[in-house]
Amino acid sequence: MSDQQGNEGETEGLAAEETQVEAEPEAPSDARREAEDWRHKAYRAAADLENFRKRVLKEKDEMRKYAIEGVLKDLIPVADNLERALAHSGGGGGALADGVSMTLRQYLAALERYGAKPFDPKGEQFDPQFHEAMSQIPREDAEPGSVIEVYQRGWMLHDRLVRPAMVVIAAGEPSASAASTSEDA
Predict the structure, then answer these.
(1) Is residue 55 classed exposed, middle or buried when 0-12, 13-18 and 19+ CB atoms within 10 A define those classes?
(2) pLDDT of the residue at 179
(3) Intra-chain end-to-end CA distance of the chain, in Å
(4) Which residues pair with 150 in a beta bridge?
(5) Closest to 160 measured CA to CA, from 40, 38, 72
(6) Main-chain phi, psi angles of 170, to 5 degrees
(7) β-strands 165-171, 131-138 pairing
């Protein structure tokens, strides 16, 4: 009987070892999963860092590009006043008018070096993103909705609107029914 007891003991020992051997492969697979999770987290962190770097560079470029927008808003009226002075000089071409004209050209060239440009939309179709309508005037010689007069030029800084142009728009022909209604009244 002692042999049987010995065999039973060996069988129990072998069963315990098999259980232990079966448990060991689970530990490495858990470690592999954990390592894989950490690797994915590292990839995500690296991608987030790269996206952050690109966003900061883009914001820095935009800040540099549009940093003078506030200053430009303060300087635009000076250009407007120089243009008004030239318009009221009567086109006589005197020394004062020539000096103002040269000053205005130099001033506009300096603003343009920084990306600021005026635009005159006369003859273009009205665009509420770039134009501010001051009034509408019925005109037969102009297409309805087109800009027929510019009170004040608009200004762009690179591709951003700084000030919309103040314009007068051509109104369409009154319809026949509207014309007859006004005649009846």
Answers:
(1) exposed
(2) 43
(3) 130
(4) 167
(5) 72
(6) -75, 125
(7) parallel
H or E segment at 76?
helix 69-87
Mean pLDDT, range 51-67, rounded to an integer: 93
Q: Residues 167, 130: contact at Cβ < 8 Å?
A: no
Q: Give per-residue pLDDT as tens, 65-119.
A: 888 898 999 999 999 999 998 888 876 668 888 889 999 999 999 999 999 999 9
* DSSP string computed for 38-75: HHHHHHHHHHHHHHHHHHHHHHHHHHHHHTTHHHHHHH
Q: Which two tokens stand for residue 150?
A: 């510019």
CA distance 139 to 127: 18
Which residue's entry shows tokens 């098999």? Answer: 18
In the chain, where are the structural domains located?
Answer: 1-67, 68-114, 117-185
The answer to whether 124 and 170 have CB atoms below 8 angstroms apart is no
Instruction: Tell me the CATH number for domain 117-185.
Output: 2.30.22.10
Q: How far is CA 107 from the centre of its chain?
A: 27
The pTM of the full predicted model, rounded to 2 decimals, is 0.64
Q: Are strands 116-119 and 154-157 parallel, antiparallel or unpaired?
A: antiparallel
Q: What pLDDT is recorded for position 92?
A: 66
